[in-house]
Design brief:
single chain; 126 residues; mainly alpha; 2 strands
Length: 126
């Protein structure tokens, strides 16, 4: 969808940033939530549950795994499988300067001239 005035609704970001940090962080989060939470914690809780099960509000964890536990295990395995893919992308991506989106860095096209202030989200033709 185009902006009514023809300008981008969000200013374009400077090219050449380092996206490797995002790949590393997302890979670690996929590993922790997928394999750590969905697989390891799920299996451990069911293995340690007593024969009567543990009850927390509407949640019951027993020694046998039901359909929800199997679904959580499968989703956790799939999410965790993204971790090595993201780590591979992090190793293959070109190195660049670390830049936060929308922040005016010195020397960037979004940096303010001396004496000027930059308003986040403002366009130049306004």
């Amino acid at each position: 969808m185009a902006h009514p005035e023809g300008a981008l609704p969000v200013p374009a970001e400077d090219p050449g940033g380092d996206e490797r940090l995002g790949y590393w962080i997302s890979g670690i989060l996929c590993g922790l939530t997928g394999w750590g939470g969905g697989v390891a914690a799920n299996l451990l809780l069911h293995h340690l549950a007593p024969s009567g099960g543990w009850r927390w509000a509407f949640l019951v964890i027993g020694p046998a795994m039901g359909p929800y536990a199997w679904a959580t295990l499968g989703i956790g395995a799939v999410v965790g499988a993204f971790m090595p893919v993201l780590f591979h992308l992090a190793r293959q991506s070109p190195r660049g300067p670390f830049r936060l989106p929308g922040y005016p860095y010195p020397g960037s096209s979004s940096a303010a001239a001396p004496g000027e202030t930059v308003t986040p989200g403002a366009t130049e033709d306004a």
